[in-house]
Write a structure and sequence with these properties.
This protein is mostly beta strands and 149 residues long. It has two helices and 14 strands.
């Protein structure tokens, strides 16, 4: 992609909490080489993962997630079953943007955000794009009535 990568805009971001009861299936893929690289094709593009990672089934989407980042933002609720436990910061894209997901100075993937998509930063610093339907199903604005019920 020839467009310069979008920088996360802290001034536009709002804090969101994970909705209760949204479970994911995740299976750890182990490797003896911490620099081993694996490519996964997802519906939102190609991911380039390094080291150990989880293969995640989340609703109708499947993707890879770096082990450290996944475990820092989720908690296990059973064998291979996880729920999101960490808040995120996010804002809606108002124009097309190229967003790169970077883990330990390694570009894991690039996604083009469309107007209405959410640009999301995990508390670990990982930035990603989530479409509006998926974002609304998974997160609620902190301080909203839905966040306290």
């Amino acid at each position: 992609m020839d467009q310069q990568a979008h920088r996360f805009d802290d001034a536009r971001a709002q804090r969101f909490l994970p909705r209760d009861g949204v479970e994911k299936i995740a299976v750890l893929v182990r490797t003896t080489d911490p620099d081993a690289q694996t490519e996964i094709d997802t519906r939102f593009g190609r991911q380039r993962l390094r080291g150990e990672f989880y293969v995640v089934a989340d609703g109708d989407a499947s993707y890879g997630a770096a082990r450290r980042e996944f475990e820092a933002t989720h908690r296990s609720v059973g064998p291979n079953r996880w729920v999101k436990s960490a808040p995120v910061y996010a804002y809606r894209a108002d124009e097309p943007h190229l967003v790169e997901t970077v883990i330990d100075d390694h570009v894991e993937g690039s996604v083009r955000a469309r107007p209405g998509d959410w640009i999301v930063r995990q508390h670990t610093g990982e930035v990603m794009v989530i479409d509006d339907d998926a974002f609304s199903a998974r997160y609620v604005a902190e301080g909203s009535e839905a966040a306290t019920t």
